[in-house]
Specification:
The protein has 326 residues and is mainly alpha-helical. Helices cover 79% and strands 1% of the residues. A two-stranded antiparallel ribbon has the order 1-2. The longest helix has 38 residues. It is globular, with a radius of gyration of 24 Å.
Amino acid sequence: MLGFAQLFASRLVKAAAILIAIVVMNFFLVHAAPGDPAMVMAGEAGAADEKFVTQLREQFGLDRPLYEQLGTYVGKVVQGDLGFSYRQQRPVWDILAERLPATLVLTLTAFILALAAGVALGTLAAVAVGTWADSAITVVALLAYATPIYWIGLMLSLLFSIQLGWLPAFGYETIGAGYTGLAHVADVAVHLILPVITLALFYMAGYARLTRASMLEVRSLDFVKTAKAKGLTQSRIVTRHILRNAILPVITVAGIQAGQLVGGSILIETVFAWPGIGRLAFEAVLQRDYQVLLGIFLVTSIMVILFNILTDILYGLVDPRIQVSQ
């Protein structure tokens, strides 16, 4: 228990250092992009003269030296303040709080579906290697892995929404329906089906291929042969000896990709008009809304770091020898 606490504390210290480095790097990357909010807002207002742009830059603090802007931003972040969006005239926290739940529902559901289905299909393919089931799973996985996500989303929407009329084509909920309670949950779940399937297919294919390859490698090791010689049942050998050791590479990849799912949701949220932070990031880039963009980068970075810490913890739970060695 003490070793686990030390491991967790060590990961938190490293995570804090990494987060500070990410905050500084994101600041410089965002400000390295051409244009700024003052130019965009002045252009939209139809008053893109130099005097008006200068006035806006003074108002937003963009006329100050970059190191001063960085110091101000880092100081606010340390205090839990992500700044103020001059585009939307609202605190960044409030904007993110509105959009983040929709993205979390989408990405976590897609991640759980992709991981569960990928590991199950990979296990089935490895157990039935060389059969028609193995070939079918391999072909489906290759197709899902090689097909662009946006194309799958458009085709699913065309078939199930436009042709068959079974599922809604876009949105988070039925506009104007006013559902509450379980009816609202069911309405959101129906809108969630197509975006989740589209986002999960690509990652499911990767987990299935990785699980199959890892299990085929592990099943040839000596300890598996020993388990067979002891007369253990096939199901016990697969679940307790092969899958338990073969799952470690899958956990590593899944831990890395769990954070990337948030970034990958930008395309899905655009295709299905899903009101999450992916679409918000896309809009913020077009509008040069620096504060919102930096807030999104910070939140997604924290999520990636948290998923990596959870991956380390899961590693120790699946194989305690790793925790001891660390």
